[in-house]
Design a protein that fits this description.
The complex is a heterodimer of chains A (257) and B (273).
Chain A: H1 2-6, E1 9-20, E2 23-34, E3 38-42, H2 49-56, E4 66-74, E5 77-78, H3 86-92, E6 93-96, H4 107-117, H5 123-136, H6 140-143, H7 156-169, E7 174-178, H8 186-199, E8 204-208, H9 212-218, E9 221-226, E10 229-235, H10 236-241, H11 246-252
Parallel strand pairs in A: 3-8, 3-9, 6-7, 7-8
Antiparallel strand pairs in A: 1-2, 1-4, 4-5, 9-10
Chain B: H1 2-27, H2 32-36, E1 39-40, E2 45-46, H3 49-80, H4 85-97, H5 102-116, H6 123-147, H7 151-159, H8 164-192, H9 196-199, H10 221-231, H11 235-267
Antiparallel strand pairs in B: 1-2
The chains are: A alpha/beta (257), B mainly alpha (273).
């Protein structure tokens, strides 16, 4: 209660159920995500954390077997409503995937892509946005002379930072990250974590992670999920140091997962 | 295991023998003059220029028809169609189309294009008939190529606010293009060697001129070969010319296959990640 008085919530998830065919993958999940903060979703494999993340930009719409009930309010508007414009929603809610997935295009074209599909064709404006986004993603010094080279020639860590640059180029409000470091080495991971801490000044970030140290390093708030349910949500320090639930304590202390 | 190996060697030797037989008997005939002049004196002398041009032209007409229809069908089946009994029926129909004997296509071409639509025997009617024959190959190759495009590319595009069609046009299709081009070239190479579908729909026994529009009749390498080998009044005298024609046809088909191979090698982006 005190929290919600101090900070306005960017996203309010209310009683969200998600079904894959007959199987229920999310069970009445309710969660408030404060603006310009980092929220980590943790829990064992199959607990529904990625599924919850992908509900926020409606990526499940690609799968006809998925059914969603409940509400996800973005600035107070329910994005699960049938007349939501998905393209506009996904411009506002960007996503970075588990495996770096730059397009087989040049570095420049990768970052320009989101602007172009959103109807921006002013070359000067695109060039400025591309440069700014790559700078913001701590990648500029490494690629500034190679903007025309194929993005697939970059290292895994560079590719992931490029994907972050691509996501922020369209100036979203929220960035969803689905285990963005799980395919990367420790040095690349450290760079991306530093980047996340900087990006939260401008964006609301929701990150799924398997790595508890990572959650503690980057997240202001942490949600622990288990078997499709949200078990506990609170300040990261509270979740890791004084959890209210037995299940949370067992998980964060490494007893299972 | 030894006899399996021997079988494989036998097949290889048979291939070599066919090629060697044609190449050795045809090589002496093929010259610049053979390639660039028309047949003379009741086809007992001269070259096969009109047949070469006719085969290239009819392949072009085929390509112009089959590329848009084949690729559009592949995109629909791979990117839009849900898995229902209707789409399964469409897929089964396309697969079966690939097994229809080519003479049936010829008959169909006469009924629909030559007579039904009043095109008369022409490059257009033959090209469309060969297009139908090639269609299942192009659709199957196109679908295969589109399916190989990693889902992560589609998700990446959609997550940036691209519409479904934008993601297909700007990300999925460019990645699938080498595979699609390969399928088109292989389909065309099969079409270029076919005789039956063009037999009734536009190919001519002998023409002094090369076609000047799609409404003209044309000569073609496989049919010319058929004439020289079986229908000519002096079969033994023209046998070398037949071998020369066979060699040129083989070269044409072989270079299409080589192009397909090259495109796949050079432009394929699969497996780079």
């Amino acid at each position: 209660m005190i929290l919600s008085l101090l900070i306005s919530n960017k996203i309010e998830i209310q009683h969200l159920d998600l079904f894959y065919g007959a199987k229920q993958a999310l069970k009445s999940v309710s969660l408030s995500i404060p603006e310009k903060s980092v929220v980590a979703l943790i829990g064992p494999s199959g607990c529904g954390k990625s599924t919850l993340l992908r509900s926020i930009n409606r990526m499940h719409d690609l799968d006809p077997k998925v059914r969603l009930d409940g509400e996800i309010l973005l600035d107070g508007h329910n994005i699960l409503h049938g007349n939501t414009n998905l393209n506009k929603l996904r411009r506002r809610v960007g996503m970075v995937f588990q495996k770096p997935n730059p397009f087989p295009k040049s570095i420049y074209d990768n970052v320009a892509y989101g602007l172009e599909v959103n109807g921006i064709h002013d070359k000067t404006r695109i060039r400025a946005a591309v440069e700014e986004s790559i700078r913001e993603s701590y990648l500029w010094d490494e690629v500034k002379n190679d903007l025309d080279k194929p993005a697939l020639d970059l290292s895994g860590g560079q590719q992931q930072r490029l994907c972050i640059a691509r996501a922020i180029a369209v100036e979203p409000e929220v960035i969803l990250m689905d285990e963005p470091c799980s395919a990367l080495d420790p040095i690349s991971t450290a760079k991306i974590e530093a980047l996340i801490l900087r990006l939260k000044e401008r964006f609301t970030i929701v990150i799924v992670t398997h790595n508890m140290q990572q959650a503690q390093r980057v997240a202001d708030f942490t949600a622990f999920m288990y078997l499709g349910e949200l078990i506990e949500f609170g300040r990261t320090s509270a979740i890791f140091e004084q959890p209210n639930q037995e299940l949370t304590r067992n998980y964060v202390s490494g007893h299972f997962g | 295991m030894r006899w399996l190996f021997l079988c494989a060697v036998l097949v290889f030797l048979l291939c070599c023998f066919v090629f060697w037989d044609i190449a050795s008997k045809g090589f002496g005939v093929v010259s610049l003059e053979f390639l660039l002049t028309s047949p003379r004196k009741g086809m007992t002398e001269g070259g096969i220029f009109p047949a070469i041009v006719g085969t290239i032209y009819v392949s072009l007409v085929t390509a112009v028809f089959v590329i848009p229809f084949g690729v559009a069908t592949a995109i629909y089946l791979s990117e839009y169609a849900r898995d229902t009994w209707v789409t399964r029926l469409i897929r089964a129909a396309i697969r079966n189309l690939a097994g229809v004997p080519s003479i049936i296509y010829g008959l169909f071409g006469v009924a629909i294009f030559v007579d039904g639509l009043g095109m008369g025997p022409s490059l257009l009617a033959s090209g469309l008939t060969l297009g139908l024959l090639t269609l299942p190959y192009v659709v199957a190759a196109g679908e295969e190529a589109l399916r190989h495009v990693p889902g992560s590319y589609r998700e990446g595009a959609l997550a940036l606010g691209a519409t479904h069609w934008q993601s297909i046009r700007t990300v999925v299709l460019p990645v699938a293009t080498p595979g699609i081009v390969t399928g088109v070239l292989l389909g065309l190479s099969r079409a270029a060697g076919e005789t039956a579908p063009i037999l009734f729909t536009g190919v001519a026994f002998y023409l002094r001129y090369v076609p000047s529009s799609v409404w003209d009749e044309f000569m073609a390498l496989p049919y010319h070969l058929f004439i020289l080998a079986t229908q000519h009044h002096a079969i033994h005298q023209v046998r070398p010319l037949a071998y020369g024609t066979a060699l040129v046809l083989l070269g044409f088909v072989f270079s299409l296959n080589l192009m397909a191979f090259w495109v796949r090698k050079k432009y394929s982006v699969y497996g780079q990640q």
